[in-house]
From TrEMBL:
Name of this chain's protein: Aconitase/isopropylmalate dehydratase
Keywords attached to this entry: 4Fe-4S, Iron, Iron-sulfur, Lyase, Membrane, Metal-binding, Transmembrane, Transmembrane helix
Entry superkingdom: Eukaryota
GO MF term list: 3-isopropylmalate dehydratase activity; 4 iron, 4 sulfur cluster binding; metal ion binding
Transmembrane segments annotated in the record for this chain: 465-486
GO biological process, one term: L-leucine biosynthetic process
Pfam families attached to this UniProt entry: Aconitase (PF00330)
Aconitase/3-isopropylmalate dehydratase large subunit alpha/beta/alpha domain location: 71-357, 361-454
Gene3D superfamilies: Aconitase, domain 3
Length: 506
C-alpha cells in the first residue's frame, strides 16, 4: 500500500452533527410538450416529456434526508426527492467550454439543431480560450477563431476573448485557465449545476455547487436544450478535523484521500468534504481539494458553502443563489475520517496519483525541472506558498523552474502582492532572485502538452517534475505531483524525482 501520513478510518455513516437543512418543494408535474426547435427525431424522443421552467423560489421542504449533491440535482430536476442511481433530466445553470472542446461541441449543436439554431440561453454559457493559446500553430489559433465566430453569431454574453497573442495584457477580456477564471468571474455559485467540457470542472464544487465534466456530444445537447440526463451518484463523505501542520496544504489532503481509496475508489461517486479542517480552508484551497476528485474517479466534489464562500462571492456576482446542505438523516455510501494534525507533506510518485509517498521518503531522488502552475497549482496562494519557501532558503534553483499563473489576475498578484515576512517583496522579485524563469502568460501552458512552441513543453526525451496531478500529457512525461512547498524545495534539495531520467519511447 502507498505510504500514508495518517491512519484514517472508514465505516458506514453515522451522523453525529447537524449539518443544516435545505428547503425546497415539489413542483407540479411537468406537461408533455413538443420540441419547438427543428431538431432530429432522436432528440425529440429522449426529451419527451420536457420539464417546465425551473423556479427555485417556489420549492418547498423535503421530509427524507438527502446529501448536498442529491438536493442540488433534485432541485434542478424539479423533484421532491432523489436517490442514488436515479436518472433525471436536470436544468443546467452554467455551461462552460474552451478552445479544445468548444469547436466540436458547436459542430454537434449545429448538426442536431440546425445551422441557424440559437442556444437555449446566451447568458448561461461561458466560453474561455485557455489551452492552446500562446502559439503560432495555425490549427490551435483556428480553434479560437471558431469560438469567436460562434460567440458573435449567438451573442454569447460571457466570452473571454484573446486577440493579441503577443501581449496578453492587451486583452482585457482574456482571463486564463477556465477553472480558476470561472470562480474569479463569479460563475461558481452555491446550489447550482455547472457543467463543463473538461474533466477538472469539478473544481467548482468548492462553492457548494454540483460541477462535473462532460463530453462534446453532451455539451452540444445542452447548448440546444439547457438540459442533460444525469444519474444521481452515491456520496462518499470525508471528514477532516485538526489544525493543518506547517507546510501542509489542500493538495496534501486530496493526495492522502486518493492514496487511501485509489484512483478508482470514487468512480461515479460524489465526494463531500466536511470537518473543521475544511472549514478553515480558503476558497482557493477548497478549489484544489475539489479539483482532484476526478483523479479518484469522482463524479463531483463538493464543500458546504459558508461565510468564506459568501465573502469570496460578494464582489463577483449579483446573481441570487440558494445554498443547500446535507440533511442529518442523509445516507452516505461510506465515511472516511482523518486527523489532519498528524498529516505530513505528500507526493504522488509516477505513474499514478494514488502512488502516495511522504515527501521525506523521496529526499534522495534527483529532479530535472520544476513546473509550478495549472488549474490545481497556479493560483495566487500557490505562488505565495512557493515564494515563502524560496525566501526562507535564500538559495538559487539548480534546475529550470517554470512559473505559469492560471489567470491574468494571478499574474498581476505575482507582481503586486507583498509576500508576508518578505519586507515588501513580491513573488516576482523573490522568484527572480532565486533564479526562476520569468512568470509566463496565463494559460494551461505545458499541462496538456500543446504545439511544440508551447511554453515549458518538452520537445525532447527528458525527465520532468510538474506540480500537477494528471499524467496523460501528449508528450508522455513521467510525473511527480506535490504541493508548492514540495516543488520549490525540490529545485535544490532533490526531494522528489522521476523513476528514470528519460521518457518511455512511444
Amino acid at each position: 500500500m502507498a505510504s500514508s501520513a495518517i491512519a484514517p478510518t472508514s465505516a458506514p455513516f453515522i451522523n453525529k452533527k447537524e449539518l443544516g437543512l435545505s428547503a425546497f418543494s415539489s413542483s407540479q408535474a411537468f406537461s408533455l410538450q413538443r420540441c419547438k426547435r427543428t431538431v432530429s427525431k432522436k432528440i425529440c424522443s429522449v426529451m419527451t416529456p420536457q420539464q417546465s421552467e425551473r423556479k427555485p423560489a417556489t420549492t418547498g421542504s423535503v421530509k427524507t434526508g438527502m446529501t448536498m449533491t442529491e438536493k442540488i440535482l433534485a432541485r434542478a430536476s424539479e423533484k421532491t426527492h432523489l436517490s442514488p442511481g436515479e436518472n433525471v433530466w436536470v436544468n443546467v445553470d452554467v455551461l462552460m467550454t474552451h478552445d479544445v472542446c468548444g469547436p466540436g461541441s458547436f459542430g454537434i449543436f449545429k448538426k442536431e439543431f440546425g445551422q441557424n439554431a440559437k442556444v437555449w440561453d446566451r447568458e448561461k454559457i461561458v466560453i474561455i480560450p485557455d489551452h492552446y493559446i500562446f502559439t503560432s500553430d495555425e490549427r490551435a489559433n483556428r480553434n479560437v477563431d471558431i469560438l469567436r465566430d460562434f460567440c458573435t453569431e449567438q451573442n454569447i454574453k460571457y466570452f473571454y476573448d484573446i486577440k493579441d497573442l503577443g501581449n496578453f495584457k492587451a486583452n482585457p477580456d482574456y482571463k486564463g485557465v477556465c477553472h480558476v477564471a470561472l470562480a474569479q468571474e463569479g460563475h461558481c455559485r452555491p446550489g447550482e449545476v455547472l457543467l463543463g467540457t473538461d474533466s477538472h470542472t469539478c473544481t467548482a464544487g468548492a462553492f457548494g455547487q454540483f460541477a462535473t465534466g462532460i463530453g462534446n456530444t453532451d455539451a452540444g445537447f445542452v447548448l440546444g436544450t439547457g438540459k442533460l440526463l444525469l444519474k444521481v451518484p452515491p456520496t462518499l463523505r470525508f471528514v477532516m478535523d485538526g489544525e493543518m501542520p506547517d507546510y501542509v496544504l489542500a493538495k496534501d489532503l486530496i493526495l492522502q484521500i486518493i492514496g487511501e481509496i485509489s484512483v478508482s475508489g470514487a468512480t461515479y461517486k460524489a465526494m463531500e468534504f466536511v470537518g473543521t479542517t475544511v472549514d478553515s480552508l480558503s476558497m482557493e484551497e477548497r478549489m484544489t481539494l475539489c479539483n482532484m476528485v476526478v483523479e479518484a474517479g469522482g463524479k463531483n466534489g463538493i464543500v458546504p458553502a459558508d461565510g468564506t464562500t459568501y465573502k469570496y462571492l460578494e464582489d463577483k456576482t449579483s446573481v441570487p443563489f440558494e445554498p443547500v446542505f446535507s440533511d442529518a438523516q442523509a445516507s452516505f455510501l461510506s465515511e472516511y475520517r482523518f486527523d489532519i494534525s498528524k498529516l505530513e507533506p505528500l507526493v504522488a510518485k509516477p505513474h499514478s496519483p494514488d502512488n502516495r509517498a511522504l515527501a521525506r521518503e523521496c529526499k534522495d531522488v534527483k529532479i530535472d525541472r520544476v513546473y509550478i502552475g495549472s488549474c490545481t497549482g497556479g493560483k495566487t496562494e500557490d505562488f505565495l506558498a512557493a515564494a515563502k519557501v524560496f525566501l526562507a532558503s535564500g538559495k538559487k534553483v539548480k534546475v529550470p523552474t517554470f512559473l505559469v499563473p492560471a489567470t491574468q489576475k494571478v499574474w498581476m498578484d505575482i507582481y503586486s502582492l507583498p509576500v508576508p515576512g518578505s519586507g515588501g517583496k513580491t513573488c516576482s522579485q523573490i522568484f527572480e532572485e532565486a533564479g526562476c524563469d520569468t512568470p509566463a502568460s496565463p494559460s494551461c501552458g505545458a499541462c496538456l502538452g500543446g504545439p511544440k512552441d508551447t511554453y515549458a513543453r518538452l520537445n525532447e526525451p527528458k525527465a520532468s517534475y510538474l506540480f500537477l496531478s494528471v499524467f496523460f500529457f501528449f508528450f508522455f512525461f513521467f510525473l511527480t505531483s506535490g504541493t508548492p512547498f514540495v516543488s520549490t524545495q525540490s529545485v535544490w534539495l532533490n526531494l522528489v524525482d522521476l523513476v528514470e531520467h528519460r521518457l518511455l519511447r512511444g
